[in-house]
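Support request, please re-run this one:
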Amino acid sequence: MERPPKATLRETREHNEQLVLATIYDDGPVSRAEVARRTGLTRTTVSDVVERLISAGLAREVGRGPSTGGKAPILLQVPDDARLLVGVDLGDTVFRAATVNLRGEILHRIEVPSEDADGQAALDRALDLLDRLISMRTGPVVGIGIGAPGLIDTTDGTVVQAVKRDWRNLPLAAMVGARYGLPVYVANDSQVAALAEHVFGAVRSANLIGVKVGLGIGAGLVLNGELFQGDGFGAGEIGHTVVEPDGEVCRCGSRGCLETVASSRAVLARLQVLRGEPVSLEAAVEAFRQGDPGVRRVVLEAGSHLGAAVAGLVGALDVHRIVLAGTMAAFGEPWLDAVRASLRHGALPALARQVRLELGGIDDIVILGASALLMTRELGLNLRPSRTAGSVASGPADDRERGREEETQQSIDAILRPA
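Re-run finished. Output below.
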């Protein structure tokens, strides 16, 4: 059997730099000796790499740590503003762009309406937005990360198909890169949203499913700390899975897709029929909180449909942490409970009871996810799970939660029961 080729000196050097940088980023302030211990590299190698990182502005010395008997060690940290990231969200109704530091803090943010634009007009609007933002930059920019709806070939940043924008085989990364002379990475918006939760969320677990539920629906999969996109880059495209074969026609052309029953678009369309006039998301959320029975029925039905679809992901992947984000998350815990109850009804009980279902806590999640994509691809920060993260074990708190869910399910059943 042919042996795999040995890494070149350059590849080894790049690997070591990325490993040391990631360790300082995650664990700083940290000493050179501790970096060597955690990476398995020699102290000499670590010292050489650290000097290069300091020269590049990607690391700095920030004082001394406690002494363990000898000379107090010098501590290292990655400066938050060592590099700037440009994150872009090409959303259904608004295009947003921001400059972001390495800790996910948004420094400058601008947006333009986008609902009425498709084809070349949508592309021109996105480029105009980037022109404005790039002119505002105040430091070295790593590159541009873009989260866009649709099926995207992330090897070259080509939008294979984006139904809403009428984009097909659009070489978006190449066009943007040529315009600004910067590295550009493009990925599906739901996929980068999951990456945002992994990199910038409160807990960094090894595996994560992020489900973005807005005008469209999509899932992002982080497996073993890395974004998983599938053989054709379409992993997580659950929004266009048919759940009601005789249902409404979807914008993709199929009938009865999950988006037609569980998205905010579907909820607002049904409320318009119910009330005889258009209903805004804000008005729907307020009516839901006030206990309007018609609104609650429509919203909880949407949550139940979503839970059934997520149950399929649980059965296929056995991932314990699932985060729901997007505009539908504004309906809060009751909607989440409807999703949870349907998930636990539809998945194998031994798997379902291990699942921790959460509402996302990150604003501008696609902008930050696109920025995280840049960090992982351009800086090589293969960010590992935090040492406090791990499998979600069942315990007394989970038992109490299940008891509360059983009560909630009874309420949901009462609301959804046919009159």
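The chain has three domains: 9-77, 84-188, 202-361+389-416. DSSP finds 14 helices and 16 strands in the chain.
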